[in-house]
């Protein structure tokens, strides 16, 4: 049986093909009765929109790429789920690519993988520099996630410095004075870890606690094994912290294991806070206090910005971008909140 077309829907509903198109594209100036007739005909005939044809007419593929450092890191997996859902509501297909935090892979992504099969890129860079981003002439529309490397790029992130300051301040308000930063690194730089280190140091300064560089526990990557190794090494070197600020939940979960193996009680002796609010932290023992970014809002904002930029490039701007070249680079800060659980409070607490 032949696949039903718009003209079949129009004939069945007793309206013009243009009216069917208006209903499919959610054009506002269609009466409720006509819209209902067309929708009933679409359901009866089993009509499906030809997305390939629609994108071909617009000069696009309908495919965007989400490029993240590691697919098996829970934060990126959860973020990808939100991006796919948001893109699907805009009839976009998402190609998910793992960069491995490798500069050459990130550059290839930034260049659209050397072909025209993606309309735009959502990229979480770890190895790129500001110069790399400035030299992307002719690259597909791109939205960056994480810390801002280049002021001329569209960008979505939480305020990492503020979030780390708030989390550290909460630990200090609990009476904790020796707070180690797991994943911390020299705060001169534009990366997420550097921003969180600045927030950590700002909270210490506000509380009148002297900053000790040895309180930063750098890690090779942000996995559970790295958190466990960093905390194990610190304890075996004689460190006696009463709190840990971990720069993601994976590090925090590894830290919990190391503390357990050394007979350290959480939170009685050492309180622990992570970042990202991944699902595993809600089921750990104890459950993990964490900084929770609004991942759904990150995805929604990134896809919206990318769609606007794609429309601008194709000459059919939407969502407020009136004409090509007018939409200025957008720097969007998404909300976060501190979620307090057993690893700091001894019981689940109100955020």
Structural description of this entry:
The protein is an alpha/beta fold and 351 residues long. The protein contains 13 helices and twelve strands. It has helices at 6-13, 17-24, 32-45, 51-58, 74-88, 103-110, 130-134, 160-173, 192-206, 224-236, 249-261, 295-314, 342-345, and strands at residues 63-68, 93-98, 120-123, 142-145, 154-157, 179-182, 216-217, 243-246, 271-275, 289-293, 331-333, 336-339. The protein has a six-stranded parallel β-sheet with strand order 2-1-3-4-5-11, with helices on both faces. Helix 5 packs across helix 12 (295-314), helix 8 (160-173) packs parallel to helix 9 (192-206) and helix 10 (224-236) crosses helix 11.
Short structural description:
The chain is α/β, with parallel strands linked by helices. 41% of the residues lie in helices and 15% in strands.
């Amino acid at each position: 049986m032949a696949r039903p077309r718009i003209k079949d829907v129009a004939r069945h509903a007793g309206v013009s093909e243009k009216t069917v198109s208006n209903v499919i594209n959610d054009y506002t100036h269609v009466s409720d009765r006509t819209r209902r007739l067309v929708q009933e005909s679409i359901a009866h005939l089993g009509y499906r929109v030809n997305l390939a044809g629609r994108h071909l007419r617009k000069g696009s593929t309908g495919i965007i790429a989400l490029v993240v450092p590691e697919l098996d890191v829970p934060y990126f997996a959860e973020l990808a789920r939100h991006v796919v859902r948001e893109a699907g509501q805009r009839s976009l297909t998402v190609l998910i690519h793992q960069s491995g935090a490798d500069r050459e892979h990130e550059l290839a992504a930034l260049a659209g993988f050397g072909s025209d099969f993606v309309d735009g890129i959502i990229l979480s860079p770890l190895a790129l520099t500001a110069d790399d981003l400035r030299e992307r002439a002719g690259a597909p529309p791109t939205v960056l996630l994480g810390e801002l490397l280049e002021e001329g790029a569209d960008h979505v992130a939480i305020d990492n410095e503020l979030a780390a300051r708030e989390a550290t301040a909460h630990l200090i308000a609990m009476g904790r004075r020796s707070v180690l930063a797991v994943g911390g690194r020299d705060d001169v730089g534009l990366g997420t870890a550097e921003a969180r280190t600045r927030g950590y140091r700002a909270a210490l300064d506000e509380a009148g606690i002297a900053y000790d560089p040895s309180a930063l526990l750098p890690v090779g990557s942000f996995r559970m094994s790295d958190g466990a190794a960093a905390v194990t090494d610190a304890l075996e070197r004689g460190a006696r912290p009463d709190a840990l600020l971990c720069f993601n939940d994976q590090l925090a979960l590894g830290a919990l294991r190391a503390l357990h193996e050394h007979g350290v009680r959480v939170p009685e002796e050492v309180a622990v806070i992570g970042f990202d609010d991944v699902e595993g932290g809600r089921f750990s023992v104890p459950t993990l206090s964490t900084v929770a970014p609004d991942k759904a809002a990150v995805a929604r904002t990134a896809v919206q910005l990318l769609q606007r930029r794609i429309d601008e490039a194709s000459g059919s701007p939407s969502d407020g971008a009136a004409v090509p070249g007018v939409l200025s680079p957008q720097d969007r800060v998404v909300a976060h909140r501190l979620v307090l659980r057993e690893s700091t409070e001894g019981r689940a607490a109100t955020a």
